[in-house]
Amino acid sequence: MTPRTLYDKIWDEHLVATRADGTSLLYIDRHLVHEVTSPQAFEGLREAQRPLRRPNAILSVADHNVPTLHREKGIADETCRLQVEALEANVKAYGVPYLPLLDDRQGIVHVVGPEQGFTLPGTTIVCGDSHTSTHGAFGALAFGIGTSEVEHVMATQTLPQRKSRNLRVRFEGALPRGLGAKDLALALIGRIGTAGGTGHVMEFTGAAVRALSMEGRMTLCNMSIEGGARSGLVAPDDTTFAYLHGRPMAPQGALWDQALAHWRGLAYEEGGVFDREVVLDISELAPQVTWGTSPQWVTDITGRVPDPASATTPDDRQAMLRALDYMDLRPGTPIEEIALQAVFIGSCTNGRIEDLREAAAVAKGRRVAPGIRALVVPGSGLVKRQAEAEGLDRIFLEAGFEWRQPGCSMCLGMNEDRLAEGVRCASTSNRNFEGRQGRGSRTHLVSPGMAAAAAVTGHFTDVRRWLEA
Ligand SMILES: CC(C)[C@H](C(=O)O)[C@@H](O)C(=O)O
Ligand code: SF4
């Protein structure tokens, strides 16, 4: 048989119909729902008096508006409380599976789906959230949709789509010690730009990707959207299957064997046709730090804040000047000399157990530098429980970090965890846009190890120096 790409395989298996104008109708297997983008969708169903087609194809959870302190006392912020209450009323009315706020399984939707085994290889997965691309780590075609599309999927279990182009991203060489998937993602976006993947689905290949854990693959796919892609994909392999085996919502027994046989057919095939390819040699890569207000404005920890004079077009120069002004940075400043006031370790990019282990390895036996507020927010209740079983919470608390309850938290200013104007933060999240963590706040994107190292020094520092030999 002619080799096919993973994207082509999943697309073909889910194609319901194609119209003459090239629009296709895709069957959607799974739907994740959170409180921000679902209220109007439920309202639309209600108004049209339509039933929800497959309530059990949905998993819902509140994450953006949840407090990460004293949650058991309820939600103090009125707007946040109303959002969560609306979700709870809707899922109850429509019989949709829901993970309540005080349930150990609650967390960020993109951490929870994989953890529960809801995310499976070869499936189509949607959510009214751009970082749905995370689930592509399992070899699922997963992408974010708008609220009206959420309603469409709820009503019909299908979605009109145009086929994207296929982009192969090949990482050559092995990841150097002290570096992780976050550095891969940032380096890639630095290379291709935030529009580099526009109109494409990215499939990540190469030995370094094969060597990544599922957590690492999720970090990589999570950020594919920041490189402009519709989705990110990693072909499933034994690492994928080992992660899924025995998860509550994954197939069990004979069904597992059947599923596994099918999933093996989704393995990466040499010779599959891609429209484009990007190759990145990572063997000499250094830890990455963003300096601007877009994830593409990134450099090595050993580097300096760039000079807008080096921009190739006047528009680029203007954009860089504006970014440096917002970030309050001067060209030529060594990245290691940038001082911080806040550190955030968490989010659907880097809020999983492996990320917390990476940060704890640096924090262990050290102290958060004076004047720094450092938060560690597990991506889910199960991540929190696991971390506590391993004693990571003690390491963080003894070092002076705050240990919080799970949620999106300081990744975006939609809940109580916000930065004040002018505060500079090293963050393990995925977006550094103006005002992302609170109006006037300044975000630098880094890996969990780099964030922890920054917390204990008070400025950026090369995490490789902080790791035991
Ligand atoms: C609020 C939500 C719709 C949004 C998204 O789509 O990604 C958020 O999760 C984000 O990260 O900006
Ligand atoms: S953690 Fe951040 S990026 Fe992820 S879903 Fe929440 S707000 Fe969006």
From TrEMBL:
Binding site for [4Fe-4S] cluster: C348, C408, C411
Pathway(s) of this molecule: Amino-acid biosynthesis; L-leucine biosynthesis; L-leucine from 3-methyl-2-oxobutanoate: step 2/4
Record flagged with keyword Iron-sulfur: yes
Domain Aconitase/3-isopropylmalate dehydratase large subunit alpha/beta/alpha: start-end pairs: 8-458
Keywords from the UniProt entry: 4Fe-4S, Amino-acid biosynthesis, Branched-chain amino acid biosynthesis, Iron, Iron-sulfur, Leucine biosynthesis, Lyase, Metal-binding
Xref: InterPro entries: 3-IsopropMal_deHydase_lsu, Acnase/IPM_dHydase_lsu_aba_1/3, Acoase/IPM_deHydtase_lsu_aba, Aconitase_4Fe-4S_BS, Aconitase_4Fe-4S_dom, IPM_dehydratase_rel_enz, IPMI_cat
Superkingdom, taxonomy of origin: Bacteria
Leading EC class: lyase
Pfam families hit by this protein: Aconitase
Reactions catalysed: (2R,3S)-3-isopropylmalate = (2S)-2-isopropylmalate
Assembly, per entry: Heterodimer of LeuC and LeuD.
NCBIfam families: leuC, PRK05478.1, PRK12466.1
Protein name: 3-isopropylmalate dehydratase large subunit
Organism, scientific name: Geothrix oryzae
